[in-house]
Design goal:
Layout: E1 6-10, H1 15-26, E2 30-35, H2 42-49, E3 54-58, H3 64-71, E4 76-79, H4 85-90, H5 92-113, E5 117-123, H6 146-165, E6 169-174, E7 176-178, H7 187-200, E8 206-208, E9 214-215, E10 217-219, H8 220-232, E11 238-242, E12 248-249, H9 250-261, E13 268-270, H10 284-290, H11 298-309
Parallel strand pairs: 1-2, 1-4, 2-3, 4-5, 5-6, 6-11, 7-10, 8-13
Antiparallel strand pairs: 9-12
Helix pairs in contact: 1-8, 3-5, 5-6, 7-9, 9-11
Length: 310
């Protein structure tokens, strides 16, 4: 390609960000990581920077002037920076500041700079508790926490700057992301860690209720592929689910992890009332708009995670 493309990636030093940056480098993008390094992996960024195609701007999305100055010359923007869903309930003020004001700073700067494509990390949590499965992009949105509300607001702001300034965007509604390098704070990763620790100690995993709660686990490698496809897709200005379309129940997850560890234990069910929430993505639009089909089955991804971890 004659003109070099520069991707500006907020949160690029985080769990998902590092996977995205590596795939962008494979596609010959120059990458500018914008990250306050609160949770970022400085060593991993330093290794990537050795290629000469990655630079780190150690700054915060809450400062609009810093965002605007740092974005100059970027052709594409990926906005991943956010505080987690758990943190958003513990501290709604910080959550709104980073996830809503911060997102607006990045989106407004992208519109000002006339970037070719803006990819937003949105979330399946914008749907709230789904009334039906699989969850489709046109379903009613009912975000329940400041984090989820911010993600929906981010999508609305993209549509506003599309109307106002012609900004071309795709919002990717990530389902339950897992994979190597993940922090242990997310609810569903803590479930994975809890199960694995017990299984490795020869103890049975303990499941609340009948284990019918389900998630749509999507491997971080597939998430990063979807981001790169969204940067280059011909269609734009739509939200797109990124999941596998398969709802894996907590009971199924326990079985997958027991098999992966190779332990001789059976799960224990703790009989109590549990709010059974289920998640599975309708993946039709991802295939049609992005040409995206997940490559890593949950059994394979979880088994690899166990091997890497131990």
């Amino acid at each position: 390609m004659s003109t070099p493309r520069t991707a500006f990636v907020t949160g690029g030093a985080g769990f998902i960000g590092l996977h995205v940056v590596r795939q962008l480098l494979e596609k010959d993008y120059k990458v500018r990581i914008f990250d306050n390094m609160f949770r970022g992996d400085r060593d991993a960024v330093a290794r990537l920077a050795e290629s000469g195609d990655v630079e780190l701007i150690d700054q915060d999305v809450r400062y609009g002037g810093a965002v605007h100055a740092a974005m100059k010359g970027a052709t594409h923007v990926v906005h991943l920076a956010a505080v987690s869903i758990n943190k958003s309930e513990a501290d709604p003020y910080e959550s709104i500041d980073i996830n809503t004001v911060g997102a607006h700073n990045v989106i407004a700067a992208a519109a000002d700079h006339g970037v070719e494509r803006f990819v937003l990390a949105s979330s399946a949590s914008v749907y709230g508790d789904p009334k039906k499965l699989p969850m489709h992009e046109d379903d009613e949105l009912s975000p329940l926490t400041p984090y989820c509300i911010s993600k929906r607001t981010g999508e609305d702001l993209l549509a506003y700057y599309q109307r106002r300034a012609g900004l071309s965007w795709i919002a990717l509604r990530f389902f339950n992301v897992y994979g190597p390098g993940q922090k242990t704070t997310a609810y569903y990763t803590s479930v994975i860690n809890h199960f694995v620790n017990r299984i490795k100690n020869g103890e049975p995993p303990v499941i609340d209720g009948k284990g019918e709660q389900s998630m749509d686990f999507i491997h971080v490698h597939d998430i990063a592929r979807a981001v790169v496809l969204a940067m280059e897709s011909e269609q734009s200005n739509v939200p797109v689910n990124v999941g596998t379309g398969i709802d894996t129940t907590v009971a199924d997850l326990a079985r997958i992890l027991i098999d992966a560890v190779g332990a001789d234990v059976e799960p224990i069910f703790n009989p109590r009332d549990v709010l059974v929430s289920r998640r599975a993505a309708d993946t039709t639009r991802a295939k049609e708009v992005l040409g995206f089909v997940p490559e890593i089955a949950v059994e394979d991804g979880m088994t690899e995670l166990i091997r890497l971890g131990g």
